Amino acid sequence: MTIEDRLKKIGDCDIKIIKSEIVKDAKLVIFEFDEFDTSAAIIYNTGELFHLKDWQGGVPATQKDIEEFDWLSEDGKDAIVLDGLPRLLI
What we know:
With 90 residues, this protein is mainly beta. The protein has one domain (3-87). It has one helix and seven strands, in the order H-E-E-E-E-E-E-E. The longest helix is centred in the N-terminal third of the chain and has 9 residues, at 3-11. It is globular, with a radius of gyration of 12 Å. The N and C termini lie far apart (25 Å).
């Protein structure tokens, strides 16, 4: 399943990736949904995906901005930001 397909399933909307930037062992992906709105996701090299809690707020412009936002795991669990990237505590 592609990143677009996974995000489409979460948001129940069409997704278009507009920017992808490598950050540590992951990618920061900025995507467009509903043709005009933008949001972001972090996808680790392992395939683990986190997305912004609020898709209608701003998006991180750089890696340093990631910690300023609230993140959810792909299955909707609240994430913490550790070492600059969202993570789940198990």
